[in-house]
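Proteins fold reproducibly. Look at a concrete instance:
___
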Amino acid sequence: MSAVSLDEVRRDWTRLGSAEPLWAVCVDPDKRNGGWDDEEFLASGAAEIDGALARLAELGVGHGTGRALDFGCGAGRLSNALARHFEAVDGVDISAPMLAEARRLDRSGGRITFHLNEAPDLSAFPDDSFDLVYTDLVLQHLPPELAAGYLREFTRVARPGGAMVLGVPARERATFKGLVFRYAPWPLIRLAQRVLLRYPAPMRMHTWSPERIAAALADGSAPGRAPRIAASEEYWGGDHWQHLRHFVAVPPREESP
């Protein structure tokens, strides 16, 4: 991942955060130009987190309730929801305007700390920092080599016996719009988003299959100690993508004899 590419991601999401922070987090044609109500926006995050944590419990994927990471936190929609279940939450984003909006919307009473992270890693956090690592609709916006690096970082900062929840598109749908994203060159898609759709900045998109996620999580892990995907389930679909939510168990360390 080159510094220029990372800077391009930062620049685009800084523009999106400055112009349409809530809409850029939850893209809905009816919510353009400030259409999201603050409380409605936060309630949508609470519904997502409540459902995801309930599903982790159903799958028997345990985790503590001490500290959670919201990677690509944007305007704090999910950070606020996580703060209802964890003692502390760290929200990480590359866009300073997004983080300013997140701090405005912070309803946690001091349980959330927001971090500007412009590095291609999570070196601000030591190993085994988080009981839960959560990211949704973020990794697809990053160049794949950068996203893979963050996935490896998730395995480092997740506590043994903890969990991850990773929401990403698994594939393009066999529709006109889906096929455009699969086959059209990125400069053409970027131009269409800016000129035809009038996005404040373009949103790049990449797919991550369960097999690709599992391989990235295993990369660098000790043999037999890679995080295990307990379930990969479709949770949102449209005429562009099939989105999967991956519920991941982080294996506990073996006890020393």
Observations:
- Residues 38-58 form the longest helix (21 residues).
- The chain has a mean pLDDT of 89.
- The two ends are 41 Å apart (CA to CA).
